[in-house]
Write a structure and sequence with these properties.
This protein is about 10% helix and about 40% strand. The radius of gyration is 23 Å and the shape is elongated. It has a single domain, classed as Immunoglobulins (Immunoglobulin-like, Sandwich). Strand 1 and strand 2 form a beta hairpin. It starts with a helix and ends with a strand. With about 110 residues, the chain is mostly beta strands. The strands form 2 sheets. Strands 1, 2, 5 and 8 form a 4-stranded mixed sheet that branches.
Length: about 110
């Protein structure tokens, strides 16, 4: 009987010594990619000057523009889930939700209006 009590106390106490789970790395993280035009079935080319704006979360109000090849980059963002608005004159805007927990590449395709 004495052995059972000691064993039960040992097993119960050993569970308390586990290390705490690691917290996610807050970054900074890179969010980059490209913005292209689409006709609904295929990509028709890059969209230079597209504007990307993070509209909520900890990175709120961060902005980027695509270059002549349609590439964009947010160089240093904090890990978070947020909505980004992707827009360009003459195209229908999109507002995808992004979950950033590491460097991320994303490609967006916009349809003409």
């Amino acid at each position: 009987m004495r052995l059972k009590v000691v064993l039960a106390v040992f097993l119960t106490g050993s569970g308390c010594s586990l290390p705490a789970p690691l917290a996610p790395d807050p970054g900074p993280w890179r969010f980059s990619g490209s913005v292209s035009a689409t006709d609904g079935t295929r990509v028709t080319g890059p969209i230079p000057g597209a504007e990307l704006a993070i509209v909520n979360g900890i990175n709120s109000n961060a902005r980027a523009r695509s270059d002549a090849a349609g590439h964009f980059e947010f160089a240093a963002l904090t890990a978070d889930k947020f909505t980004v608005t992707v827009s360009a004159p003459g195209f229908v805007s999109v507002t995808p939700v992004v979950s950033l927990a590491r460097d991320l590449d994303a490609n967006f395709a916009l349809k003409p209006q």
